[in-house]
Amino acid sequence: MNRQEAEIYLQKTFGLPRFYDEQWQTIEKILNGDRVLLIEKTGFGKSLCFQFPATVFQGVTVIFSPLLALMRDQVKKLGSLGISAKCINSEQTAEENTQIIEDAKHGKIKILYIAPERQENNEWIEATREMNLSMVVVDEAHCISVWGHDFRPAFKRIINLVKLLPQGLPVLATTATATKRVEQDIAQQIGDGLTVIRGNLMRDNFKLFVVKVESEDEKMIWLGRNIEKMPGSGILYTGTRVDTEIYSKWFSFLNISSTAYNAGLDADSRIAIENGLMQNEWKSETDSASRNSCRLDGSENCQRNQLRRQKEI
Question: What residue ranges do the domains of the chain occupy?
Answer without folding.
Answer: 3-198, 216-308
